[in-house]
Prior knowledge:
11% of the residues lie in helices and 23% in strands. By secondary structure, the chain is of the alpha/beta class. It has a domain at 205-312. The strands form four sheets. A twelve-stranded parallel sheet has the order 1-3-5-6-7-8-9-11-14-16-17-18, covered by helices on one side. A two-stranded parallel ribbon has the order 2-4.
Amino acid sequence: MKLGLWNFEDKMLYMKNLVHLRYLALSLNEKVGPLKLKLFKHWNMQSFQVRGCSVILDSSNASTIWKMPLLRHFYLDGIPFTLEGSEVVHRNIETISWLRPKCCTEHLFTRIPNLKKLGIQGEMHFENENSDGFYNFVHLGQLEKLNIKGWDLKLPYSGIPWATSFLPNLKKLKFVETRLPWSDMRLIGMLPNLEVLKLINACVGEKWQPCEGGFRQLKRLVIESWSLEDWNAVDDHFPVLQHLELSDCRLLREIPIAFADIATLELIQLDSCLDSVSTSAKLIQDDQRSYGNGALLVRARNEVTSILFPRI
């Protein structure tokens, strides 16, 4: 179903009578302005997506999704919404974005046991917005993709079986502005089936010292960091890594030379990093070639010749 930009409120009211509607995708431009969304009881709705504008969804109305028994995908691109748990289990729901951190409760997650994709978005001025809620992801055993942004969270060091039954199916994880210490990556590295990790200004601190035995299945690592200066790693830290992507790492001096020993490495991609980082990447490439691996590709653009933000 496609809706125009004129008489939008009337069309939303008209939607109330579309009882057979299964798929709704709205893409709105800035001329529409903030959209106050109202949900109706669409018994046959399976996919509901709104993109391209700020969305306001009242928490009392958000619970209407529990009255859509066939709903599988629910995505709002804009202001995160609050969702209370249902009294019954909804096994069809596979995607929800973007929830507020305070929604990360045992009561909600136990009602959506087959969730596969989840987006959590906090607000930076709420520093303690359910900062311990990460523990409740233990109830999402089927989760495959998790995006977290703007949440000043805390990763629990105890009480979670990180290396065994915690998020056993998680393959893709993205942190954006989460203010995690680099030392917490030791816990993330224990996730048994993680294949893609994206850290977008997610960690604070100058040094990352990975631990042995971590990231056993990681194939793609993406880092954007304004604080990372020293990165100490050996090949055993990322044994099957294929793609390394660094962007805006303007304080990082070099890529650990131990990456030359990662036989699976196929691509090092750099954007807006120091020229010394590019030099280290080419040294790794030369070492790989000397071992008979000529497949490693190095791409670099927008090289920075000096540190732009020196500490005073």
